[in-house]
Automatic annotation (TrEMBL):
Gene3D superfamilies linked to this entry: Adenoviral Proteinase, Chain A
Pfam families listed in its UniProt record: Peptidase_C5 (PF00770)
InterPro entries listed in its UniProt record: Papain-like_cys_pep_sf, Peptidase_C5
Species classification: Eukaryota, Sar, Stramenopiles, Oomycota, Peronosporomycetes
Protein name, per record: Ubiquitin-like protease family profile domain-containing protein
GO molecular function, one term: cysteine-type endopeptidase activity
GO biological process: proteolysis
Top-rank taxon, per record: Eukaryota
């Protein structure tokens, strides 16, 4: 162990090697992390190589990557910064974006990447920091929710996705009409209640719309597995940003999207990788 009084920094010992210092252990950890990250990259490249999907099943606004070659996607993944970067002062790890591959459950970093990609893709869109839901204290919730500066008066739509218990649910606030659309891929009343409470108690205050929002539940998309909730939240939010509303949902949504889950995952991954060049790399 480290003895500060005697300035000893030997933390571990192997019979066939001897003692290892803190610096050596830190280097070992870096090497192991790098190996693991490279393995994730290879898994992603193998997934891309094997991915097939019916092109005719893709609908707008998701067609923008259908003509992109696999070689192009592979090159983008190889150039992905796997290390740390800052997004609005929030520390992210580029390797986490690889959660979009195969049938993995999306973690917070991937969801944040997807939300910020939507903010950059569509006009006048703000993002509520999804991590506000992790806190209990009202002031901390408000402070965290404002992390991505969603209260800019130029924003007409504000979006987010929150974890309601190992499951993602989403909302979009249409500021001019003062309506909020709530979405749970499983359509559970308990999940919708959680999202609605956060919208009414936190999001309204952040946006200066206290007691003004009318909430409406969107039920036009249903999760069909145990791991794609995050993906469908992002898909539904993009459709809403593209112009869909509950009254016109069938004009935008197509059940054929269930047949192209792999493509949708790859599309979000690629667009987030393209966005990463705008992030500040951590030293």
């Amino acid at each position: 162990m480290m003895d500060r009084a005697d300035k000893e920094d030997m933390l571990a010992r192997w019979d066939d090697y001897g003692y290892a210092t803190y610096g050596q252990l830190k280097l070992m950890d870096t090497v192991v992390t790098a190996k693991n990250n490279i393995s994730l990259v290879h898994a992603t490249l193998n997934w891309i190589a094997a991915l097939e999907f019916p092109v005719d099943s893709v609908v707008e606004p998701f067609k923008d990557q259908v003509d992109t070659t696999k070689d192009d996607h592979v090159q983008a993944v190889k150039e992905l910064n796997l290390g740390q970067c800052f997004v609005c002062k929030s520390l992210q790890y580029g390797v986490d974006f690889l959660d979009f591959r195969e049938n993995l459950w999306l973690h917070s970093s991937s969801i944040v990447g997807g939300l910020l990609m939507l903010r950059e893709t569509y006009q006048a869109v703000g993002v509520i920091n999804l991590r506000f839901h992790e806190f209990d204290a009202p002031d901390q919730k408000l402070r965290t929710a404002r992390g991505f500066l969603p209260d800019d008066t130029s924003y007409e739509r504000v979006i987010s996705v929150i974890n309601v218990g190992n499951h993602w649910a989403a909302f979009l606030v249409d500021v001019p009409t003062k309506r909020c659309y709530l979405f749970d891929p499983l359509h559970l009343d308990s999940n919708i209640w959680i999202v609605k409470e956060e919208v009414l108690n936190v999001v309204e205050k952040v946006l200066g719309l206290t007691d003004q929002l009318q909430c409406e539940v969107l039920a036009g998309c249903t999760q069909r597995d145990g791991y794609s909730c995050g993906l469908w939240c992002l898909v539904v939010l993009e459709l809403l940003l593209f112009g869909a509303r509950p009254s016109s949902w069938n004009d935008y949504w197509s059940d054929t999207l269930y047949d192209v889950v792999g493509y949708l995952r790859l599309r979000f991954l690629r667009k987030i990788i393209d966005l990463q060049s705008h992030f500040t790399v951590a030293e």
